[in-house]
Amino acid sequence: MSGLRTFSGALTVVMLAIFATMVAVATGYPAGARFMPLVVGIPGIMLCLVQLVLDWRRTRVEPLREGQPIAALRGAATPDEAGADGSDRSVIRREALIWGYLVGFVAGLLVFGFWVAVPVMIAAFLRFEGKASWPVALGAAIGAAAVLYGLFGVALQIELHPGFLTPHLLRLLGL
Amino acid sequence: MIETMFGALQSLLGSGDLIGLMLIAVVFGLLVGVTPGIGGKLAVAMAIPFVYGMPMIPGAVFLLTMHAVTGTSGQISSIMFGIPGDGDDAATTLDGYPLAKQGQAARALGASVTASGVGGIIGAVVFALMIPVLEPVVLMFSPAEFFLIALLGISFIAFLSSGDSIFKGLIVGCYGLMLSTVGMDPQTGTPRFAGHQLFLWDGISVITAVLALFAVPEMIALGVRGGAIAAVPVGGRTFSYRQLLSGVLEVPRHWWLVLRTSVIGAVIGMIPGLGGSAAAWLCYGHAVQSSKTPERFGKGAIEGVIAPETASNAKEGGSLLPTLFFGIPGSSGMAVLLGAFLILGIQPGALMMTQHLDLVWTLIWALVVGNLMAVTILLVICRWVAGLTFINGRMLAPFILVFIALGCYVSQGHWQNLVMLVVLSTIGYGLLRAKWPRAPFVIGFVLGGRAEASLDQALQLWGFGFFLRPLSLVLIAMIVALIAVAVIRGRRPRRGAVEYGA
To answer: What's the pTM value of the predicted model, to 2 decimals?
Structure first.
């Protein structure tokens, strides 16, 4: 289906899969519990199908031209988003990089906790993505950790997630 | 009502804590407004964790004040450098930048900041005047209508934010409603879509969902594109406080235009989804049409700065009205704000009229006082604040990411919410990347629980006959008409895309 070649079309399929899965799961619940998921999910499936048909019809009316920049097909409308060479390869690379930071940061938070992951991520991001100098990056990381400690550790007395590994490591080190 | 009105003002001004909170909100909102890439929505989403657990009134006052003043400082880059911060400020650029090039940047800034503040205040007054008019309408609503109101809200935002396809907006709205069903079913006690994950039995955290759908995608986009306006030379712009004062005095000099455009802006704000861009451009057009010398516009007419600024800020007061009384956010920023209000325990609807009128008046006064504070502060510091437009977005991204992670974790103290954040963010970023609207998700998600409860109540009271109640029929007709108009509009050849505020 040519509509799927667009990012929007692929997203519609993802949404359709989400609705279909949730409706299928909901059918196993008691009548009262499944009512609302079905009231929402079935129209959701129908809307996704309508959208897919619309996407398909649109791509038939306006067939994808060979050589057309991928960015335009995937919704990156501005030249800035599309990259200087007209392709969106550079955008995808940057997106993957920022996603990498996000996932890595969350993984770091879970494994090592806020006190370790926050300064490490800030220093790394500022140095490698923001092109800041090492002193600036490290200064910002230490400053952020200090503010974090002052605000959550001292003022609000909120215990932040210590990480799954850090407490064990500290115990091993006798701290 | 008069007693409640002045009681609210007295409580607001008499509380050092509230004034202090508002001051923080104003400063934060102004800084966020002038910084490229961070809008009011992201600011509110990031601030939600810090108001979590606060009492209702201080939390709501803080968030509303911050949201309301972000637009006040947004026009600085439009005037100084000819680069609008967002769609609302684009109209200001037409005459603001030529004024700056003529060496009158301070005059233009003085006029725009004052006009913005006055517009915000008049917008709040228009909202206040509408309360007695709307009271009987709001009180007519029963559970049946509230279920349909939730659907109408999603349809409205979907209609106005989806451009050529309402179905995308409706799909996103249904996705929000669907995710709101995760957790313990209130009727049978069955844990839905939660499996053995106990943290999901209370449902998906609203904060996590809002951050994942709004804040994370914006942060990633900021990290990808950067966002500094560093290429624009700042030198050569003259700035004097005498000129600034002359700009401030332009507002009372054009009081009739200010009043007209403020009222137009507030009324546009009441129409869900139209947003600040529509208000600003409509009022700019009105200023041109009503001028005796329209040829001056586009070359540095001060009215061309005043009209869009009053309108875009006045719409905040107007858009608060459907948000508070009907649960239909007047704009995408209001959709996020509505989510935050629900987290604070504020239930939009008839109860706002009957039980929480003091809160409504406090919010109205917060708009007035917040705008006064913002104008005063910004007139003093606008010269230096302009420098913030040179910050590279990539330098901000890691700090925003820390805010997001803190908000996500602190709200419930569950580490699983961090995992959920990443999972939901993939959809959030997908929606942003595919240019699908995200505001319907928030409405669906935050109103989902209430919509389900209202549907259950309506079915118990009237069975499926509740669809045939007169008011229900009117609401159903509105939903059908919206979808029909959207479908017809989508079939016509497009004459030009209009971007709405979602």
So the answer is: 0.76
Q: What share of chain B is helix, strand, coil (3-state, %, to 5)?
A: 75, 0, 20
Partners of A128 on chain B (C-beta within 8 Å) are none
Residue B239 — very low, low, confident or very high, per pLDDT cuts 50/70/90?
Answer: low
Last residue of a domain, one of A64, A81, A101: A64
Total domain count for chain A?
2
Task: Say whether both A101 and A145 belong to one domain.
Answer: yes
Min CA distance, A152 vs chain B (Å)?
A: 10
Query: A98 with A159, same domain?
Result: yes
| Complex-level ipTM | 0.85
Residues contacting A167, CB < 8 A, separation 6+: none
Domain, as residue range, for A35: 2-64
Mutate which of B171, B190, B222, B423 to disrupt the A interface (most A C-beta within 10 Å)?
B171
Asked if B276 and B501 count as a contact pair (C-beta separation under 8 A), the reply is yes
**Structure tokens belonging to residue B73:** 């400082």
pLDDT tens-digit map of B345-392: 888 877 777 778 888 888 888 888 888 898 888 888 877 766 666 667
A64, A79, A100 — which closes off a domain? A64
Task: Quick: pLDDT tens for A28-44.
Answer: 999 888 999 999 999 99
Question: Does A168 lie in the same domain as A97?
Answer: yes
Does any CB of chain B come closer than 8 Å to the CB of residue A75?
yes
| A167 shares a domain with A133 | yes
Q: What is the DSSP letter of A161?
A: P
CA distance B398 to A126: 8
Residue A71 lies in a domain: no
CB-hemisphere CA count at 13 Å for B472? 17
Domain ranges of chain B: 2-491
Q: Find, among B285, B40, B240, B106, the residue nearest to B96 by Cα.
A: B106
